[in-house]
Specification:
Helices cover 20% and strands 45% of the residues. It is an alpha+beta fold.
Length: 215
């Protein structure tokens, strides 16, 4: 009898915990950095001291809500800059968040709140929140993302064979939880961030992660 009572109490506690858990927000994720994430060891070690301090993070929400606000259909990007390579422990990140102009003010506020609560390690200190038209296309074998006046990202969903002679390895991991994350090949990346007074462009690098995110 005592065991039955304890079992019932434990089950009730587990159910209560599940009921109180915040629902996750899910969708497509793309991250493109200023350094390779899939390359040989020597190449990676060379870049870790000289590059890899910048990134563009992209979220295309397909389901979920935060603080009672549906985020389905919201697309946003973060332009991230750090004082050292993003994989180095202690790297100080800061970011500017751009939410698609089609999102409502409530959705914009909720999405930024979501990032602050569940993705602060990826974004670091948020310097500003802005709006701009953002297009997201993941059809076929490529991602194509454009944030008007800010960024253009074109990534192939398959890595490229570069000049590295060593065995290729996947270094680091995406900034947010991504299911079965894969590496992608950058066909073109252009970023201009006035808040940081910097612009950068890249091509022909295995510098991207992609997959299904859950926050």
């Amino acid at each position: 009898m005592k065991l039955s009572y304890l079992g019932a109490a434990l089950a009730a506690a587990l159910l209560a915990g599940s009921a109180g858990a915040a629902p996750s927000v899910t969708g497509e994720y793309l991250e493109s950095r200023s350094a390779n994430v899939y390359v040989g060891a020597c190449h990676h070690e060379g870049e870790i001291v000289s590059s890899g301090r910048d990134a563009v993070l992209v979220w295309n929400v397909t389901d979920g809500e935060f603080n009672g606000v549906s985020l389905k259909g919201v697309t946003a990007i973060a332009v991230v800059a750090a004082d050292r390579h993003l994989d180095v422990e202690g790297a100080q990140r800061r970011s500017v968040i751009y939410v698609d102009a089609a999102a409502s003010p409530a959705q914009r506020e909720a999405f930024v709140g979501l990032l602050k609560e569940r993705a602060s390690t990826a974004t670091g200190a948020i310097a500003a929140v802005k709006t701009t038209p953002i297009s997201f296309d993941s059809r076929g074998d490529q991602f194509r993302v454009q944030a008007t006046g800010v960024a253009l990202v074109k990534v192939r969903k398959q890595v490229g064979e570069l000049c590295c002679k060593q065995p290729y390895e996947l270094w680091g991991k995406p900034g947010v939880p991504v299911k079965a994350a894969k590496a992608g090949y950058c066909l073109g990346l252009e970023v201009k961030e006035p808040s940081f007074q910097k612009s950068w462009s890249l091509t022909d690098q295995n510098n991207s992660y992609f997959g299904q995110f859950s926050l």
